[in-house]
Amino acid sequence: MNIQKLLYTNIVWRGMFYLLGFILNIAIARHFKSDLTGTFYYLVNVFAFITLIGSISLESGLIYFASSGKISTSGLLNFSLLWVLGIAFLMLIIFLCSSFYKGILIGHKEFIYALFFVCGNILVTYLNSLFYARRKYVLPNVIGILFNGLLIGILIFINNLYWLNNENFIFLYFASFLLQGIILVILFIANTAIEYQFQLPSVSQIKLIFQYCMLAFASNVITFLYYRVDYWFIHHYRSSEELGNYIQVSKIAQMFFVLPAILASAVFPITAGGGRREINDMLMIMSRTILFIYSLFCVFLIITGNWLFPFIFGDSFNKMYPAFLFLIPGILGLSTLYILTAYYAGKNRVMVNLKGASLTLFIIILGDALLIPSYGIIAAAAVSSAGYIAYHVYVLSIFTREYKTPAIGFFAFKLSDLSRFKRSLMSHFLN
Which of 18, 38, 125, 395 meets the CB 3.0–4.6 Å disulfide criterion with 240? Predict the structure, then answer.
């Protein structure tokens, strides 16, 4: 399969997975309403942060060492499985110890949910990386699509299934992640036709894996926090209804980031290998094109969002529209930034991205602490936009200074950009 086909395959199947995930999110929002949705997704957010810490971004090392062949696939798979078992054991120990202290005691149900979600998501992330390292994009996404479709169907018919209630659905939702992970392990062993044997990477190889992952881990923690730290502030200072509305606004924003992230990760290795002028042209065309297309989407939502959001998510989500308006500048800024951050990552200059992300996180935490108590989710959206734009300005200023390129080249869209982008991209793929 050539690179062009791989790119389209990745975009199509990953896009379908995110689309089904977004539809599932709509179904959950309509069924549970804004206040219960806020409480539910706040719990998911806490579990997601635990997942991020527990995974230590090991997936970045898995995909690198599996792709390069420097460490055997069996060794990487076995090490991944042992790591997940270790995380599960550690969570159990922490839960049992916390049971002795009423102040931090959590219920058994919440612990089971956390165990399913954390271990399942880590397994899915690790196995997806191993599949992607072998350029197998379809199968792992098909599994995710099937599970999302199943959960959507259950929500649609929940009132007609006598054995199913809200509590049972929540159990199925969290259990689905662990089940996906287990299925992916089985399919990976079968699909790649490897002879499964219990061998682990050597101590020196494990050190290499951790060294490779640490910088990515730091970057991912900061990125997670500047995406979602406002959830904690809203949960603490405002109502569950406001939190539910804001989380949906945030999820819409994250849908805008899917395509730039896929394009940046798929296209960058080729653009980075060209000359200075070639790099400038490609990055600017990509940035301008994304900005233009997304601006049209945002204009559409500005015109229709006031009635469209309650229509899609339900009447209880009537506070989304003002918050979304204040988040639009940040959506556009961060969407076009993906191209530049991928460039610096590929140049092994991740510190540029880390410094920019740290600046963003500082602005968001400070702004949220000062403004959310009084102004709620509108302040959260405005502060996020300010942080994202600051990140963009920081990275863009470094790039334009190093390449002596006018910043206007990243924003002034031309009608010829779409065709130029396609021709340039395809010529790289086919050479």
Answer: 38
Q: Is the dihedral of CA 214, 219, 222, 228 positive or negative?
A: negative
CB atoms within 10 A of CB 101: 8
Q: Return the H-helix or E-strand segment holding 67.
A: helix 58-68
pLDDT digits (tens, 9 = 90+) for 104-119: 556 788 889 999 999 9
Q: 109 CB contacts (<8 Å, ≥6 apart)?
A: none
Q: Distance between CA 403 and CA 390 in Å, rounded?
A: 20
Name the residue type at position 60: S
Average pLDDT, the chain: 83
pLDDT tens per residue, range 71-130? 778 888 888 999 999 999 999 888 877 766 554 556 788 889 999 999 999 999 999 888
- The band of 265, judged by pLDDT with boundaries at 50, 70 and 90, is low
Q: SS3 for 164?
A: coil
Cβ contacts of 120 within 8 Å, gap of 6 or more: 174, 175, 176, 177, 178, 179, 180, 181
pLDDT tier for residue 354 given thresholds of 50, 70 and 90: confident
Kindly state the tokens that stand for 386.
């300010």
* The residue type at 121: N
What pTM value is reported for the model?
Answer: 0.83
Calpha distance 88→177 (Å, rounded): 14
| Number of helices followed by number of strands (H, E) in the chain | 12, 0
Residues contacting 64, CB < 8 A, separation 6+: 212
Could you please report the per-residue DSSP string of 218-272?
A: HHHHHHHHHHHHHHHHHHHHS-HHHHHHHHHHHHHHHHHHHHHHHHHHHHHHHHH
Indicate the burial class of 95 (C-beta count within 10 angstroms; 0-12, 13-18, 19 or more).
Answer: middle
Q: Tell me: pLDDT of 269 over 80.
A: no
State the Cα–Cα distance between residues 259 and 286, nearest whole angstrom.
11
Taking Cα atoms as reference points, which of 343, 336, 338, 393 lies closest to residue 363?
393
The tally of CA atoms less than 13 A away on the side-chain side of residue 32 is 25
Q: What distance lies between CA 290 and its chain's CA centroid?
A: 18
Query: Backbone phi, then psi, for 274, in 5-degree steps?
Result: -90, -175
